[in-house]
Amino acid sequence: MNNNDIVKVFAPATVANVTCGFDILGFPLENVGDVLTLKVVKEKQIRITKIEGFDLPYEASKNVAGVVIQKLVEDLEIGFGFEVEIEKGVKPGSGIGSSAASAAAAAFAVNELAGRPLKTKELVKYAMEGEKLASGISHADNVAPSLVGNFILIRSYDPLDIIRLDSPADLFCTLVHPHIQVNTKDSRKILKKQISLELAIKQWGNVAGLITGINLSDYNLIGRSMNDVIIEPTRSILIPMFDKIKEASIRAGALGCGIAGSGPSVFAFSKGKKMAMAVNDIMREIYRNIDINFDLYVSKISPKGAFVIKNGN
Ligand code: ADP
Predict the structure, then answer these.
(1) Which domain holds residue 98?
(2) 22 in a structural domain
């Protein structure tokens, strides 16, 4: 144990999948995410005492933060309990990693209070326990970028192999979150279990192109590669105006556009803030016309993952 018995941390919202990179690619947004305060208590139990922002379970075994903390308590053989407060900055079911932000924040905070026995990358598998609770699948493409920062490639799940990629300096994300509910569990159920070799070849060509484009800061290659021929055709039907947003954003000069996570949020990449703001205006205009409430974000790819806001009282 270190001297502090309370820590306040932030973990960012994230965009997973990133068009062709289903389950293997994600990145964090700037300035939007969850704040979690963790306090050491003598009684060996995990109590969630406050959740601000959205209505979520207080029972530790039903909240992703509680599940993640429990797993770390067991594995690190921690001999005390915790009180948890969560300020939700990310709406559940938004497609920008609401459960992941809480899971990443929880893992990061426990590690801090335990004197950092684990490296940030090692926390990913713990945060994945939270994703398992939220969606039934312990995917890492939200929790890894939320913990580590920058574009994250999950090369393999078994064994877990996480690669942090540099982000092109002038790459901006514009994201619209229409206020309709798309549950990750449901949007996974509709996916086809079998795909043709022809589609698989197209998809892995695009994944390789996208990763190379990110690595070389080749904006044109990024744009050419942002093409998901497997998941998007099935999932986009759940998102109002998806085709129109994509077509109008690209026509205006965005590099590419796709579903954020499992939706309903939609994101576009642009070179430069000016273009990202123009795409922002286009997305606003489209949703304004169909009377759906929405939030809009323009963000760089955040180089920062989870971090400590305040240590101690
Ligand atoms: P997202 O992709 O935005 O995380 P999901 O639909 O995958 O949204 O997950 C939200 C689910 O996880 C909901 O059923 C929600 O009740 C549950 N959940 C449990 N704890 C949390 C938490 N701390 N934050 C967000 N969602 C949580």
Answers:
(1) 6-165+302-311
(2) yes
Asked if 153 and 189 sit in the same domain, the reply is: no
19 is catalytic: no
What spacing in Å lies between the alpha carbon of 276 and ligand 1's midpoint?
28
Identify any residues that bridge with 175 across adjacent strands, giving them in sequence order.
Answer: 267, 297
Q: Does pTM top 0.90 for this prediction?
A: yes
Same domain, 189 and 235: yes
82 plus 20 within the same structural domain: yes
> Residue 180: inside a domain, yes or no?
yes
Question: Is the predicted pLDDT of residue 312 greater than 90, yes or no?
Answer: no
CATH number at 182 reads 3.30.70.890
Instruction: Give the residue, by CA position, lying nearest to ligand 1 atom 8.
Output: 93
1 within domain boundaries: no
Residue 236 placed within a domain? yes
Q: Quick check: 265 pLDDT over 60?
A: yes
Interhelix angle 64-75/98-113, nearest 10 degrees:
30
Catalytic residue among 120, 131, 174, 232: 131
Residues with CB under 6 A from ligand 1: 56-57, 63-65, 86, 92-95, 97-100, 102, 134-135, 183-184, 261
Is the model's pLDDT at 280 over the cut of 60? yes
- If you search the block for the tokens 């959205």, which residue do you land on? 54
Please confirm whether the linkage preceding 12 is cis (ω < 30° from 0).
no
Helices within 164-272 (DSSP H only): 184-189, 197-216, 219-225, 232-235, 242-252
Q: Which of 184, 198, 212, 234 is catalytic?
A: 184
